[in-house]
UniProtKB/TrEMBL annotation:
Disulfide cysteine pairs (residue numbers): 117-134
Keyword Signal annotated: yes
Keywords: Disulfide bond, Signal
Residues of the signal peptide: 1-19
Metal-binding found in the keyword field: no
Protein name, as recorded: CUB domain-containing protein
Domain CUB: 58-176
Coiled coil ranges: none
């Protein structure tokens, strides 16, 4: 029989753990958790450690990996105005990116003429340029470039102003080491993995979400092994008679065809667009590079001037889209929801290389 003396010290690695509440934390001793400002929430390391959760709100700073940044009064809603800021300090010089997961994200949406976030805003500063967003973004994420070494900290700010609104947010802040394979590619505000998935613009909601103005960012899909192309299809829209799951320009209260290209003119995408590199409708012959269509806008998702939505294939690698909007909507662009696309990667057969 093994006897543990009173003086045996049990050690275990400070790994990630799932707390009893469903939040994720870091496994450590009770004493360490208290010293670092966390709160113990269930056991880990076979009962030798406690799952220490870090949750913080306005005016604080954190260097703890996996910190949850919540609104003042969380889990109750916050209906006040002001500015609520979290400073994120690298836990280690070898941290290159910060991943933000919007577990809860409901703040006032944009004004309804030009869809500009001028009441409430979520602002990220200190990293790569990130467009300000607002509205409802639960389930969405962002990757922030934190630079190399101990650079300026990244700051996350919720600005709330304007009329009464039941705001709620809970943003998980994960620090990603430079050396890991799950780091996002350079220049991707959003980074998706997996053979299939769904991409949505910020504040997308088929019922009442409005496409946000002043956006300009990359959306990347990791090329999985043995996949050579990617197909995008507008998501099903179960609430509108005519699908609004791809409505980027035009008056969406009436049917609007797909528009393509970058020139000026009514059927071009000079102002707001989704760039799908060399996108072609499935079943069409891939054009020569010089004839590629890149920008798609309008109110129908297709790589051709059409009223009929289509699945669009792109074989340009790596897989990435770019979304751009200017700061004008009315009177030409009305009721646009932005986009929701389902993607499926295509295997390196069927003439895809
Ligand atoms: C905890 O981690 C799991 C696994 O990564 C994830 O699916 C879940 O959403 C996380 N929960 C929270 C509240 O962050
Ligand atoms: C932060 O936690 C995640 C898992 O939640 C882990 O993958 C990552 O390596 C951790 N970052 C650091 C700097 O330890
Ligand atoms: C859909 O069309 C029907 C019949 O034209 C109309 O009554 C209904 O209000 C429409 N619904 C929406 C959400 O536009
Ligand atoms: Ca616009």
């Amino acid at each position: 029989m093994r006897v543990l003396s009173l003086f045996t010290v049990v050690t275990f690695p400070n790994g990630g753990c799932a707390g009893a509440s469903g939040d994720n934390g870091t496994c450590m001793t009770a004493r360490e958790c208290t010293a670092r400002g966390g709160s113990a929430n269930g056991y880990c390391a076979n009962g030798f450690g406690l799952c220490c959760i870090f949750m913080t709100s306005c005016g604080s700073s954190t260097s703890e990996n996996g910190t949850y940044f919540v609104n003042s009064g969380y889990p109750s809603v916050y209906d006040g105005t002001g500015s609520c800021e979290l400073t994120v300090i690298k836990s280690h010089p070898d941290v290159c990116q910060i991943r933000l997961d919007f577990n809860r994200f409901s703040i006032a949406g944009p004004e309804q003429m030009h869809n500009v976030c001028n009441q409430d805003q979520f602002i990220v500063s200190g990293g790569n340029p990130v467009p300000a967003i607002c509205g409802n973004n639960q389930g969405s994420h962002m990757y922030i470039d934190a630079g190399i070494g101990m650079t300026n900290p990244v700051k996350l700010t919720f600005v709330t102003s304007g009329p009464t609104f039941e705001r709620l947010w809970k943003v998980k802040v994960t620090q990603i080491p430079c050396s890991t394979i799950y780091k996002a590619d350079e220049g991707c505000l959003q980074y998706y993995t997996g053979v299939s998935g769904q991409l949505r613009s910020f504040n997308y909601d088929p019922v009442s979400g409005l496409q946000l103005s002043n956006q300009d960012y990359g959306i990347c899909v990791r090329m999985e092994r043995n996949f050579c192309g990617i197909q995008y299809t507008a998501c099903p829209d179960t609430v509108n008679n005519r699908s609004r799951s791809f409505t980027i320009s035009g008056n969406s209260n009436t049917p609007v065809n797909a528009m393509i290209g970058s020139g000026a003119g009514p059927n071009n995408c000079a102002n707001d667009w989704l760039l799908v590199p060399c996108g072609t409708n499935v079943g069409r012959i891939q054009p020569a590079q010089a004839l590629c269509t890149d920008r798609i806008c309008g109110g129908t998702f297709s790589a051709e001037l059409s009223m009929q939505a289509s699945t669009v294939l792109s074989t340009v690698k790596p897989f990435r889209l770019w979304f751009h909007t200017d700061n004008i909507e009315a009177p030409v662009d009305v009721g646009n929801r932005g986009f929701c696309l389902n993607y499926v990667q295509q295997p390196c057969t069927n003439n895809l290389v």
